[in-house]
Amino acid sequence: xxxxxxxxxxxxxxxxxxxxxxxxxxxxxxxxxxxxxxxxxxxxxxxxxxxxxxxxxxxxxxxxxxxxxxxxxxxxxxxxxxxxxxxxxxxxxxxxxxxxxxxxxxxxxxxxxxxxxxxxxxxxxxxxxxxxxxxxxxxxxxxxxxxxxxxxxxxxxxxxxxxxxxxxxxxxxxxxxxxxxxxxxxxxxxxxxxxxxxxxxxxxxxxxxxxxxxxxxxxxxxxxxxxxxxxxxxxxxxxxxxxxxxxxxxxxxxxxxxxxxxxxxxxxxxxxxxxxxxxxxxxxxxxxxxx
Length: 291
Prior knowledge:
This protein has helices at 14-27, 43-52, 59-73, 78-83, 96-106, 140-147, 168-171, 175-181, 203-206, 211-214, 217-238, 261-277, 279-290, and strands spanning 2-6, 37-40, 118-124, 129-133, 157-159, 162-166, 188-192, 242-245.
């Protein structure tokens, strides 16, 4: 089995979208035709659905959606800032912009319509249960919405009798689930990151923090830490069958929601540097994907 796993990371999903666009450019093929499974968390779940929908979206078009729709999705009116106390009393963003984008690009497709099997992660707050959404009757819009409903950023999604939030709370990097789906013997497991966090939290700053101060940064710490843990586990378990394409965010912001023009341009440059630095490995991936 050849599998693709895509991390969560909000607007930073532009990075794996551009890496995928480069792979599609080099191979001349859509990603969904080269793998047997695509699994994604949060923004990675959105990309997974777009890659595998009926009439798959080219990855370059997916990247363009981040640049055109990202500023609309991560837009807060003055009223929203006031009523949410800047995200402390309510979610930061209305989900209407996110859902509108999903509906325009995923349409009426359901997970069962995917041209390649797709799994997306989500967490059920009421049952306190980690989930892999795979029911063929779930719409891609609902699956993508649920997996990207990051706490404090968007309100949870009520789907049937479940209350779902971003799968990043347990699997920012979902590659370990792809590994188990492949019965622990993948021919290739390609894992795409959205940029590793570089913002320091020094001791003198955090030593006296309480719940209020930790409320925002703890989400990033948990998301980033869990992704790194999966990477270490898979390096030990799979050897060269596992390829992780990840980059440090030396220029771009590590915020999930910085969709400013300047940061989108910086994210594109981060992706371009990653592609250049890992050129030989990307060539090997392309050869394995098309073999």
